[in-house]
Amino acid sequence: MDTQPSILVIDDEPDNFDVIETLLDGEGYQLHYAPSGQQALTRLSSFQPDVILLDVMMPDLDGMEVCRRIKADPQWQTVPVVMVTALTAKEDLARCLGAGADDFISKPINSLELRARVNSMLRIKQQYDNLQALLKLREDMVNTIVHDLRNPLTSIVLSTEILRFPGLSFQKQQQKIEQIAIACQQLQSLINSLLIMAKLESGKMVLNYTEVDLCGLCISALADVEAIADQKNLTLISELPKPGDTVKVDAAIFRRVLDNLLSNAIKFSPSNSQVILRAENLAAGGTKIQVADSGSGIPESLRQSIFEKYEIGTVNPQVSQIGLGLAFCKMAIDAHHGRIIVEDNYPKGSTFTVLL
Ligand SMILES: Nc1ncnc2c1ncn2[C@@H]1O[C@H](COP(=O)(O)OP(=O)(O)OP(=O)(O)O)[C@@H](O)[C@H]1O
Ligand SMILES: [Mg+2]
């Protein structure tokens, strides 16, 4: 809804519109006027008000019929209709509701009552609009996920087809098997992230805390991204504590956090640059882990939003951007009662810091 809610007043008597305008004065509404049912229906095809105030007694198309037509059209039926009526018999009021009206107000109109009814209708409309927006977001998310699942799956199907060719060289076979393995890993990782995030969100995730060797954890995370880093000729640098320094975390989840941060650093770094992984137990207690790169960096204005689901910050057509990695990291670190932030790296790039 706009900051100024819009109200369409349908009444054959222009004086009545003036009355309503006066009664609603100062409420910050945008008032529109249609002098007949037919004109109102024509008007509605190009304009959606937030509330309709509809006179019952009008020549030609009366208010009941206009209401019935509005409520019969899927495009309009969610706009609340308040019938304005001089009729007071219970049967007439029942007829208004029977025609699909959401509320009614009797003439002579009382200012307080009119404002209260309009506000209550606007509140309902706003709730409905919010729900619609949420549904749309869900639908977009589902589409994105299905799309992201399809890419690796297509790769598996194609590679399997090729493997069926008789006489395929041993080298080609190995290459296809490797591609299948990578695609399977992508699928598994995406599905695991989605499942763990859903669990973290529902508050039902029970973290399985253990004392983990910090140095070992980092080394194994680095080993897993070595191959992708090699493809871009990146140097992976580690500044790690001596073996034996431990951190109390859910090892599996924490590993995924490191994987995500390293994979981002690699993905958003130019070839031939450096990615640094630092980890240390702080003298004052707690653990600090940093992943620093010399990539594009993250503009100040996006440093909050990239931690939200499906937020991809600056669009980079050269790489896949789903927007789940950092949302996962944030949720996982929150669950550990820690913090994750991003800052500039000098002279260029970004540094992600996890504090536990
Ligand atoms: N190290 C980085 N350097 C520059 N930009 C980054 C970096 N890490 C994240 N970003 C930005 O933040 C966005 C969100 O990151 P996030 O990890 O949540 O999603 P993603 O990498 O796009 O997709 P995925 O779900 O596969 O991780 C990225 O798309 C990118 O624009
Ligand atoms: Mg990522």
From TrEMBL:
The modification 4-aspartylphosphate is found at D55. Its EC number is 2.7.13.3. The keyword Kinase applies. Residues 144-356 form the Histidine kinase domain. GO terms for molecular function: kinase activity. It catalyses: ATP + protein L-histidine = ADP + protein N-phospho-L-histidine. Keywords: Kinase, Phosphoprotein, Transferase, Two-component regulatory system. Residues 6-122 form the Response regulatory domain. PANTHER family: HYBRID SIGNAL TRANSDUCTION HISTIDINE KINASE C (PTHR43547:SF2), TWO-COMPONENT HISTIDINE KINASE (PTHR43547). This is histidine kinase. It comes from Nostoc paludosum FACHB-159. The lineage of its organism: Bacteria, Bacillati, Cyanobacteriota, Cyanophyceae, Nostocales.
